[in-house]
Amino acid sequence: MTSEEIKQSVTALFSDVIYDETGEFLNILINASELRPLMELLYSKTEFKFDYLFCLTCIDWKTHLTMVYHLLSKKHRHNIVVKAKIADTNKPEIETVCDIWKTADFHEREVYDLFGVKFLNHPDMRRILLDEDWVGYPLRKNYADENMIKL
Amino acid sequence: MNLLLNISFSSLARWIDLSLTNLLNNYMLVKAIEMVIAGLSLLVFLVPLCFFLGYMERKVAAFMQIRLGPNRVGPKGSLQIVADTVKLLLKEGLTPNASDKFLFNLAPVIVVIACMLVMAPIAFAKDFQLWDLSIGVLYISSVSSIGVIGILMAGWSSYNKYSLLGAMRSGAQIVSYELSVGLSIISIVVLTGSMRMSDIVLSQENGWWIFKGHIPVLISFIIFIIASTAEINRAPFDLAEAEQELTAGFHTEYSGMKFAMFLLAEYINLFVVSAIAATLFLGGWMPFHIGHWEAFNHVMDFLPSSIWFLGKTFAIIFIIMQFRWTFPRLRVDQLLNLEWKYLLPISMVNVLLVTIMAIMGWHF
Amino acid sequence: MFLKEYFGTIYKSVKSLLSGMKLTGYYFTHPQEIQTEEYPDNRATLKMFDRFKGEVVMPHDENNEHRCTGCQACEIACPNGTIKVITKQEVQADGKKKKAIDVFVYHLELCTMCNMCVTSCPSDAIKMAQTFEHSVYDKKQLKKVLNKPGSKIMEGVE
Amino acid sequence: MSLLGEDIVTGKGEFVINIGPQHPSTHGVLHLKVWLDGETINKIQPHLGYIHRSIEKMSECLSYRNFIYVTSRMDYLSAHINNQACALAVEKGLQIEATPRGRVIRLLMAELTRLQSHLLWWGCTGLDLGAVTPFFYAFREREAIMDIMDETCGARLTMNYCVPGGVMYDVHPNFQKRVKDIIVQLRSRFDEYDQLLTGNVIFEQRTKGVGYLSPEDAVSYGCTGATARGSGVSCDIRKWFPYDGYENVQFNEILGKTGDCYDRYMVRMAEMKESVNIIEQLINNIPEGDFQAKTKMVLKLAKGEYYQRVETARGELGVYIVSDGAASPYRIKYRSPNFSNLSALEVMAKGAKIGDLVAIMSTIDLVIPDVDR
């Protein structure tokens, strides 16, 4: 399936979608609220069959956060990037996808740990790398730690 | 030449006995003093033996693993084990706060005592035996299983989950492997008709059982080696102290002298098991004789009997060591599988075969 | 059938175990295969490879001259802040002032031997030495000054 | 967290033990909390982060030339391949390509790295299962490979040999001869490995039917590398998305059938042989020319996002660079293979014995710094 066809099928169901094809993969930008239905569609529809979530991360753009999901279909060998914008940087929240792709369990915990994005309906939302009592989210751009050594 | 041959362990023992009887004229006292001497000489024998076994194990391991092994302390590293012992003696013997302190400290003592008790009926050389009791073989198989109590005690009292798991594994293991050991011993008892160690050795005057007894005895020899390796908790059956699974198993919490005692017990056990295997199957101190080749037999007789005994023992020790440095460890259920599915049925059939052989007189 | 399978398993197992023991037995009886290097004893013959990255040094020639211009390219290239180049203004013979190094500080304790400073150096002033016995009792001893006292820049190096 | 109560024995009579962070078989500082019923594992929960060094944050502070070296410290056993991934990602951003000679050298080094990593893994697998001797045999060959690295790159483990545009310096004149020697040496040693461990009945019993991972789970948990290929999931990045000239060499992707520990083991063993084949194809055909493309002193990537994935010895490593046009990356994400592989441990180990857990962990081939980053 080409990216054009993917675009067509997605546009048919979701109105508020922006496409970006400047990079290596087709990027789908969507609002955080609509992420979950889109993901379910991408996973379950046989023409897409994006069964492999190979990268899940977050980018802090200071004004907002962007969740980035890299998906690959093992069957059709096509890649896609889904990006979800989270406007609220103080209390970011988004639906979990860890029941669709089990690998998201650990990756979402990592994002929670380092960015503070809370994943709703995640079964085990704890910090994964840092201590339970760590203050702040280190990969945020506004994270400050007096113990940090500036080179 | 004759004089040299006459000065052996047995003549020494007889001389001590005679002179003490002449001196004291009191049977009880003489026996008491003799016991003390025997115990002391056993200790004097065992400590260097364990040093040597420790050194041997390291060197065997090293050479199989294409490395040099200990080579710093003393010539060719031979004093390394002494240095290690001194280190262990000087280290603090920790007792965990939550442990059952009495049992915790008692356990290593029991383990060592149990394995030293087994030394009693072993014939080290011609006419040289601490205690030639009429049920020697039975005594060995019953006393050697006391050690597991020490291990269970150590694991339970340590207040450590790894230790407990290790102790439980060891319990299951020793209880089951005891059967195979017993059955393979019985096959020799059937052939000799006696449980006395000296009788068993004398019965092999014209050939060792492993040669005389055809394939059934060979099979029971192999089963004995495998089962006794399991019984003394050595790799590939070292589940009780499986390093990669349970850190150090039942002796995780032990340090210093108490740990050294477990180590001592392990090596004494290794020696004892090999000595028993050598006595039962390889003729103990009996030199290698072939039927009626008088000249050949005469040449073989020149070697002192203690050398024959130790040579056979160490050959078996080497094989057990090679097991350890070649094989991966079994899992706990496979361990029991091996015993109940393979070793036990085979040794039961084997005992039957040996019995038929003994009744029919098919052995040489 | 069952018995055949049963004894077949035993035969195969024993065979596989014996083949392992044969291999360890082979190495036990062939001590020439031993690979151990007795390190402190073979120090005299032990030679590291030419490119081995042990520590950063600044070679000086017989006139106590080095090639460092004090351009600080290495300091920028270093990812760990290992190098600190402190420069001074030196008056030349013709009266002109010229930048030269005062002290070239090298923190061996921070260095990860990534070779980035050496490749970035435009005048080949520093290189990697093959030493590897760096252990000291005090961390402060690992802070090194690479330019020798009284040294100056080589003629013709810009 | 309380240390008493539920953490020792649960209401169901489960025994809770903590395996690690200091434990002989966790290969570093992995901490597993295990709920046991007797010897059987009911539940397992990894606790990570003991050596979290914030490599992603560090990379954000370093320039595009410098951040590469940090990645050697992630999966230190495939340090070169990590560097290669970063160099490729930067090259993608700069829209340049490494010189042909540089690419082949990189590829050769990557395969050597894979070999040494697998050799270490083979030794450690033996060690974990209680056979100490394989470790030393594996190290004999590994040392020979490390010597090649040492001679050419100047370091044995964290070589930092890849730079954007090629490699840092040319290979040593002895390189080809040494590599040919190691090919001969390895080919003759593979039989010994099989004798000692692969064919051993105890080893087979310990690994066959243990730690089963279904292909669906393997994909869902994001497993890659031999962990997924053991289950028959094709995921070799060298085949799927070739880089640095993997499309020009002949090799097979090794796939297992059953997905148990033994298959994962056999996949790795076969991969070693494939690596030797790849090296043999290339070692006589290193193109002449520059080993490094000309690049600017200060590298600046155009604004955008760049994703590069490579196949390390453990699986798929993804480097995701978000650039805002400055001299250092705005955001870097390393999608490390071990992190995802570890998450599948839970399904693999459920219902297994403690002894199996060790076998499973060693066949996943965990490197904890890569998990924690």
Characterise the protein shown here.
The complex is a heterotetramer of chains A (151), B (364), C (158) and D (373). Chain A is an alpha/beta fold and 151 residues long. Chain A has 3 helices and 7 strands. In chain A, the strands form 2 sheets. In chain A, strands 1-2-5-4-3 form a 5-stranded mixed β-sheet, with helices on one face. In chain A, strands 6-7 form a two-stranded parallel sheet. In chain A, a hairpin with a 4-residue loop joins strand 3 and strand 4 (65-72). The relative contact order of chain A is 0.14. The mean pLDDT of chain A is 81. With 364 residues, chain B is mostly helical. In chain B, helix 2 runs antiparallel to helix 3 (27-64), helix 4 (80-90) crosses helix 13 (256-281) and helix 8 (161-192) runs antiparallel to helix 11. Chain B folds into 2 domains: 7-90, no CATH class; 97-360, no CATH class. Residues 1-5 of chain B have low confidence and may be disordered. The longest helix of chain B is centred in the first third of the chain and has 38 residues, at 27-64. Chain C has 3 helices and 7 strands. By secondary structure, chain C is of the alpha+beta class. Chain C has helices at residues 2-29, 73-77, 116-120; strands at 55-57, 65-66, 83-91, 97-107, 127-129, 143-145, 152-153. Chain D has a single domain (52-372), classed as Cytochrome-c3 Hydrogenase, chain B. Helices cover 47% and strands 12% of the residues of chain D. Chain D has 15 helices and 8 strands. In chain D, strand 2 (31-37) and strand 3 (40-47) form a beta hairpin. Classes of the chains: A alpha/beta (151), B mainly alpha (364), C alpha+beta (158), D alpha+beta (373). The C-D interface holds C 12-13, 16-17, 19-20, 22-24, 35, 48-53, 77-79, 112-116, 119, 128 and D 62, 65-67, 69-70, 133, 136, 140, 143, 147, 150-155, 158, 160, 163, 168-169, 172, 192, 195-197, 199-202, 204.
